[in-house]
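We modelled the chain as a single entity of 420 amino acids. Its sequence is:
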Amino acid sequence: MTVAILARGQNTALPPAASYSVVVSHAAGPEVDLVAFLLDEDGRAPGDAAMVFYNQPDGAGARWSPPETAGGVTRHRLDVTPGGWAGTTARVRIGLTVAGGTFAGVPGLRAALHGPAGELYTLDLGRPDVQDALIVGDVYRHRDAIKVRCVGDGFTDGLRGLITDVGLTVDDEPPVPAQPVVTLTKARQISLAKPAAGASSVDLRKYAVAVSLVKSGLDARTFRVVLAIDCSGSTKKLFRSGVMQRSLERMVVIADLLDDNGEMEVWFFGDYPVRSAPVRVATAADYLDRQAADKKRAEGGNFEPRVMKEILDWTAAEPSPHPTLVLFWSDGGVHAEKQITELLVRASNRPVYWMFLGLGVADYGVLARLDDVRGGVVDNAGFLPIDDIDLLSDDDLYGQIFGTFVSRWHSAATAAGIVT
């Protein structure tokens, strides 16, 4: 029998059955533990009793079994019985942690979902490397069906990452460790030569960015530039109409002048983040069409804290002498205000600035309040409601990003010793 493979972010309906099993296997290596969480429709755990693991193996509709080793292969098993779910439980999340290392050191890692007759699907976890905790996937109720979703994303702070991702707290949670102070030296020189008549839109935008950088005192600075693109269901019209592609083309010229190598790192996000290929001015045309598979993997709801944490983990795993500017596109509908605010405060000692950009005419709600998050070392986030980007001139767009927001953070971060 051929077993189908679910890629990261992919979901499918399961054949009717009283119970299913998620089985994770690997060869000898660092110690791996399996853990599960009973979650509501919003992906939140109601309390510590919703955690199923070796010290609390029985939950309502989920049972953890001790790992078994045979022939050099260790197998972990979680049985899921949807008919036994109680209260608000609408899904079971399956996670893994590794002790004393990362998943790069776990050989032969494999995950599969089984029904009563045997294996139904292989869950492709990709090639995790720096993570020491992984979300394997979710088994969940959707209308009248039971479905499985392969996730394969992880964290670099172990079990703590899995726990906080579902809304639980860790009593002794420390602040995010500060990264070494970075120096804002300029790797690429800014030119203020005015484009000739008939110049391309790219050259005109580069000039507008250059003017904004000079006016804001950032022309001698270098940043790593990241673009996070909202792929929640409400953004489909923005993608179909080309608004998202045109917005990307407005952003990539920032990286051309400000980034240390002229590239912009890209993440798509919905419920879960998907890192895609970097983009530069020369590769920007039709970028979203070429990366449609990555975008599709990220589609769904919107849970911003996951992509924010993954970007922060990336800055720690791939350190740079330059700070990071995150251009964060969203059309609103943000509901995880508490988690976003806590993350911003905890990461406020890091050389990372979050520039939230509201795209599409929407009730931005939470996003607008991110412009004034209190309690951190510095204010490390700003919000610019753009609505219709085609009506906003280059001068206004770049002038507000750098003059109103990034320069303000740069001054505060310099005074706080986060950058020099």
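As a brief sanity check on the tokenised model: The radius of gyration is 23 Å. The domain at 201-415 is CATH 3.40.50.410 (Rossmann fold).
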